[in-house]
Amino acid sequence: MLENKIIKLRGILFGLAAAFFLALSGILSKKTTLATGTEQIIVRYLMQIVAMLIAACYCKINIFGPKDRRIILIFFGIFVAIVGYIIEYVSKVY
After folding, report:
1. pLDDT, tens digit, 9 for 90 and up, residues 50-87
2. How many domains does the chain have?
3. Which distant-in-sequence residues (6+ apart) come within 8 Å of 63 by Cβ?
4. Vertex 25: Cα angle to 11 and 19 (nearest 5)
5. With contact defined as beta carbons under 8 Å apart, do 40 and 32 qualify?
6. Considering just the CA atoms, what is the radius of gyration of the chain in Å?
7. What is 7-37 written as a DSSP string?
8. What are the φ/ψ torsions at residue 68 (nearest 5 degrees)?
9. 57: part of which helix (H) or strand (E)?
């Protein structure tokens, strides 16, 4: 009975947890003086990658995606990375 209610509210619970951790991340980034913003972002994303890899290995999920779509996923990842670098460059220049 309780498990069914938790399953129905799982999305809301994940949303609340995400909001909490995002707020906590914002507070910590404002209070810290030891690292620049870029270094904080690198650490945050590396922690997310490690957590997602652990979760994917635990759930036995294929992290490379379906074989017929791998090349599209690789090009999408490269494209998004290039766009990120361009946005960062443009924001620093202008």
Report:
1. 988 898 888 888 887 788 888 898 899 899 999 988 98
2. 3
3. 53, 56
4. 20
5. yes
6. 18
7. HHTHHHHHHHHHHHHHHHHHHHHHH--SS-H
8. -75, -10
9. helix 37-58
| pLDDT per residue as tens digits for the range 16-54 | 998 998 898 888 878 877 877 778 788 888 888 898 889
Residue span of the structural domain in which 39 resides: 34-63
- Same domain flag for 53 and 72: no
Q: In this structure, what token pair is assigned to residue 32?
A: 């810290």
The residue with tokens 């991340």 is 25
Rounded CA separation 5/10 (Å):
9
Whole-angstrom distance, CA of residue 68 vs CA of residue 73: 10
Query: Are residue 25 and residue 3 in the same domain, yes or no?
Result: yes
